[in-house]
Amino acid sequence: MLIPLDKNSKKVEPSQDFSHPHDSAIKVPPTRGIAKENTNENAPHNSSISYTTTEFSAGSQDLQDEQSKGYDSSTWYWEFIQTPTASSKPYLVVCHRMEDWFYPVSDYFTILRIADGELPPWNATVLLLPDDKFCAEHPYVKEAIKRRNEAPFLDTQGDNSPKLYNGWNDGVFWPESIKSTKVLRLLKDRPALVRLRGEVFWRNKGHSCSDVDFIVDRQKERLFDDCLTIHFVQGVSSAYLREFSDTGLRKGDLGVQATADIYEKRIIHPKANPNITLPYVNFCSFLIRYDPNNLVKMFNSTNYDIDAIVRHMFFRQLSEYKPCTRVSNCGGTPYTSYKCMSEGYKFHITMENSLVDGYISEKLFNGALGSGIPIYFGASDVGSYVNAKSFVYCNISRSVVDEMRTFYPRAPKPRPFLFNRTSTGFWPTEEEMFTWADGYLRSQLEPCVRRVIELDVNDTAFREVLSEPFVTNHDLLSGQYPFRGIELALDAIKNKK
């Protein structure tokens, strides 16, 4: 028997307490499976949640069959609905799983997964919307979208307007247009609809987010002008993904607390001996999937912008001084690749695919766990989030990168290279590619190469950089940075003064 959504469902009124649980230590709840019994032992996220009934165990064929059916109506739930009791934390509703970015702030919320048959309350705080059929067809999601579309626009100019800001403030981007046009809708008796934007180098160029209340983004440049954007630092999620993914920590992995202790230099690196003398037997590591001598194949196989060529050109240029080692067979995931760096390398090339402010991926964060000094190219505002004294920053002129991009414009694959060449066919030769890129980048990379050489020959200077904490702002690791952004965005659409 199916349970009607609005007739027999127990309504939950959670407290909207936005207190910060991470005052001194980093804590994250364990990952959740589908509850098998009516017991708090299997409750998702925290022990304040209990269930009225559940009939299917995790991974059962019955559950898989139900999930594969989809939904023909917006008014019914499955018969294995589970109703949570009231929580002292605001609710976060997810369809299948939490997005990677949300792990650092997860302990501020009570997590409800509708794929597990959990029935969220209508005053749930946030509903994450992945772009998949299951989520789009779920009756709770359909009703949440309907309620948002019917919600009144906020008056952003009158006496009763909410508190708004200009530009970036506490990790939230406030576009000027929200003050002059009606785009923000009142949050009442519905969850805020939120979507995560994808990688910076393949995303669409769309300029609207009219179907959600705010966007969560890993970069701070290419922004929508009709909703709020909350910034998060992608690399922070690395330790949380190692510890709280489906597989969890495995032997030799660094969890959240150990990662934070190393970043903040509360403990020495596990590879160090008591005298903090690391056995540096190798010069420099470069973890890369693609062969640095076959860049044409890399661009032919990926959606990378031309920015991605910088790290390969630096690898070649630095190797003119002393050979760097390409590491290509590192097992595990991108979040555990730091283990391949901690094999006696003094330096690690940890450069981004794209030069975009705010976009700081797991690469630099892995390098900071590699027991050597990271060498970084990427976000020019990286020093706003981590300690710039703890790594070598390669400062490539934005105008140079912009000009290089005009020779490899964004287009469906295969994308043409537009610089002059003698080769026939669609692609340049490897030599033509290197010659073209070297003409733009050699002089730009030379100061960075000189700095690495200086640290390599001067052990005192090397140790000074190595002793610098990678992270000095505890809010970044504890999740308070993006959570404050969520608070501000929610206060605005709730029309709080």
Describe the protein.
- This protein has 497 residues and is α/β, with parallel strands linked by helices.
- It folds into two domains: 1-264 and 473-497, no CATH class; 269-470, Rossmann fold.
- Helices cover 27% and strands 11% of the residues.
- It contains 14 helices and 15 strands.
- It has helices spanning 61-69, 133-137, 139-150, 237-244, 256-263, 295-301, 309-318, 338-341, 362-367, 398-405, 430-457, 459-467, 474-478, 480-493; strands at residues 3-4, 76-77, 91-94, 110-113, 126-128, 167-169, 172-174, 192-196, 214-217, 228-231, 282-287, 325-327, 345-349, 373-376, 392-393.
- The strands form three sheets. It has an eight-stranded mixed β-sheet with strand order 4-3-5-8-9-10-7-6, sandwiched between helices. The chain has a five-stranded parallel β-sheet with strand order 12-11-13-14-15. Strands 1-2 form a two-stranded antiparallel ribbon.
- Helix 9 links the parallel strand 13 and strand 14 (373-376).
- Helix 7 packs across helix 11 (430-457).
- The model is unreliable at 1-83 (pLDDT under 50).
- It holds the Pfam family Glyco_transf_10.
- Pathway: Protein modification; protein glycosylation.
- Residues 310-394 form the Fucosyltransferase C-terminal domain.
Task: Describe the secondary-structure layout.
Elements (H helix, E strand, L loop, with lengths): L2 E2 L56 H9 L6 E2 L13 E4 L15 E4 L12 E3 L4 H5 L1 H12 L16 E3 L2 E3 L17 E5 L17 E4 L10 E4 L5 H8 L11 H8 L18 E6 L7 H7 L7 H10 L6 E3 L10 H4 L3 E5 L12 H6 L5 E4 L15 E2 L4 H8 L24 H28 L1 H9 L6 H5 L1 H14 L4
Parallel strand pairs: 3-4, 3-5, 5-8, 8-9, 9-10, 11-12, 11-13, 13-14, 14-15
Antiparallel strand pairs: 1-2, 6-7, 7-10
